[in-house]
Amino acid sequence: MKKLPLFIFVLFTCSVFNLLAQLPYTNPALSHEARAQDLLGRLTLEEKVALMQDQSPAVPRLGVPEFGWWNEALHGVARSGYATVFPQAIGMAATFDEDAVFRTFTAVSDEARAKATHSKQVEGRRGKYKNLTFWTPNINIFRDPRWGRGQETYGEDPYLTTRLGVAVVKGLQGPDDSHYAKAMACAKHYAVHSGPEWNRHSFDAKNIRPEDLWETYLPAFKALVQEANVKQIMCAYNRYEGDPCCASNSLLVDILREGWNYRHVVVSDCGAINDFYNRGRHETHPDSATASGAAVRAGTDLECGRSYRSLVGAVNKGLIAESELDVSLKRLLKARFELGDFDPDSIVPWTRIPMSVVNCEAHQQLALEMAKKSLVLLKNDKNTLPLPKKAGGILVMGPNADNESMQWGNYNGTPYHTITILQGLEAALGASLPCVRTPHVVTEDKVQFTVDSLMKDLPACDKVLFVGGISPALEGEQMRVSLPGFRGGDRTTIELPAVQRALVKALAEAGKQIVFINCSGSAVGLSEEAKICDAILQAWYPGEKGGQAVAEVLFGDYNPSGRLPVTFYAGDHQLPDFEDYSMEGRTYRFLEEKPLYPFGHGLSYTSFAYSKPKIKKGTKTLSVTVTNTGKRSGEEVIQLYVQRTAPQARGKALRGFRRINLGPGESKEVSFSLSGGTLDFYDSNQAIVTTLPGTYLLEVGGSSDPAACVRTSYTL
């Protein structure tokens, strides 16, 4: 083909740009919705279908740039080069600190904007992992500790998950009154989704009791829609009552769109539409075209996958109308206009955030703050901790002692520098420490051989800081792991791997003082270790500054204040069937036996006392005075639990928490409102969640354990 002369090409190009500049969708003065509607009418069927897929190509003739919808920011911008790596989500949940979580995700969105602008302006890339629509937070309920992805959540409690989830969304998306969104969050996985991993593509969550659905599985999603204005919802892989979640009229239409008035984007989990028709999976639809049509008709606007390519044929065959596609595509285009994706960077204020914010000193200090607040002191016999700052006689041991990648969790970015636990301890002491690295897990036939070998050559020591637990290489999303205790990312037992259990026992028999630092994204069965270890610290996957945080707690430079966002069960015998989605017998709300460590538990190096709670006359406000009765400053997390005793008795539930700092001898009055949903439970007569006149038991304290609470009754 003969090339056009340069002057003709330039003239043609300028004419196209001039023409585009006159079209309504290119006018930033118009509303995002009006611009989306105008652009929608100019697209061909083929272009529309292409733009309904997560890796959306450019439409050059209309000046539409390429767009990558799939981006990750679970605990820092992920899979996109260097970024600040904060503690894993379950660790952030242990802070019980809404403000700190909000500040963290404000920092995350700062880095996200800077990196996206850099990718666009310098790298010329706007695709996968380079954009601003983040598929986080994961607000599924961590109902069973065996679920490998539970580390991505904010724990087992709907209220805690709700409050922290709202903070995440607001931190990521920026102020509601901003003309351009800073970024977009995504509430996932909607709904009734929390393992097992191995059968998630075929599993049907059915026979769910209404009270479990509305009190446990849906509250966080509702709050993120109605309170936080989350801009994306991701539908889950599994079926709900027979229908794939991404084609569930009950979930997507009746509840989400019509019940909660949600008007933004719904995206499928990756490959979820394929599950509708692939053999051995849901097999609810015969082929890609019918599956895609059903998903769009139910309101799944965007697909992560390849099935939506068949929508062109589906329209041509009359399986779905093009106008039905338009409903979804308008929502997608509006979201892109809200991000400023079609406008010059000069008029989008968020693009002025510089790359210098990425892993800057302020963000590193925030990562350290979050790591310290996340650490939970589970046991501290005879004030074993804090330890004196003397290197002599200390041995560091275990599989996680000097393990950088363990600290990063999953769905993670890459920090410029990670302080491992060994490095943090050595820096605090100003001296090197002997370290014995051990495996996380070995086959049964090698347990005793491994223990004998390690104990035979054990360096001389009085104290052993055993940094054990598991790792993101063993628990996570649908992994190729088949080792004793693990299956496909999930766990088959919550007990500590046998080789670690045997090592700890051998150390105790050798007369060593043992401080066990447990790193995990989930609750671990530590009943035997609790009998023989002098202190136990739960460290989660603590991020890039985790080693410094652990050292500051162990040596007393920071008073531990984290609280368990999950129940630590006494053992496997307390767990119901993993595949049973009934909440009966699960979590602190319905467990009838005594756990090893209860939800909300966490020790301090000081002590706190609570006055009898009072309800101020003529108000719906409960107040309690908390006093630091120890000799050093510390933070206490005050927790309010509510139980409806009559009518229709319901199990107690967390309905408020406050983190306060108190100096020695200092007291503060803390108040909780008893209105605004605090007393809401499911009413079987009306089939809704509401506040009923009746009697309520109110407990306030430092954990969910009744023995740690003061209580009063309230009649409405």
Question: What does the model show?
Answer:
It is a single chain. β26 (695-701) and β27 (709-715) form a beta hairpin. The chain contains 20 helices and 27 strands. The protein has three domains: 6-357, TIM Barrel, CATH 3.20.20.300; 374-590, 3-Layer(aba) Sandwich (Rossmann fold), CATH 3.40.50; 608-715, Sandwich (Immunoglobulin-like). The strands form eight sheets. The chain has a six-stranded mixed β-sheet. Strands 18, 19, 20 and 23 form a four-stranded antiparallel β-sheet that branches. Strands 22-21-26-27 form a four-stranded antiparallel β-sheet. The protein starts with 5 loop residues before the first helix and ends with a strand. The protein is globular and about 80 Å long. Helices cover 29% and strands 17% of the residues.
What topology emerges from the helices and strands here?
Blueprint: H1 6-21, H2 32-40, H3 45-51, E1 55-56, E2 67-68, H4 89-93, H5 98-123, H6 158-173, E3 186-190, E4 204-205, H7 210-217, H8 219-226, E5 232-235, E6 239-240, E7 243-244, H9 249-259, E8 265-268, H10 288-298, H11 311-316, H12 322-338, H13 361-374, E9 376-380, E10 394-397, H14 404-407, H15 421-429, E11 435-436, H16 447-456, E12 463-469, E13 482-483, E14 486-487, E15 490-491, H17 498-509, E16 513-519, H18 527-532, E17 535-538, H19 546-554, H20 587-590, E18 608-610, E19 614-615, E20 621-628, E21 634-646, E22 653-662, E23 667-673, E24 681-683, E25 688-690, E26 695-701, E27 709-715
Parallel strand pairs: 3-5, 4-6, 5-8, 10-11, 10-12, 12-16, 16-17
Antiparallel strand pairs: 1-2, 6-7, 9-17, 13-14, 14-15, 18-20, 19-20, 20-23, 21-22, 21-26, 24-25, 26-27
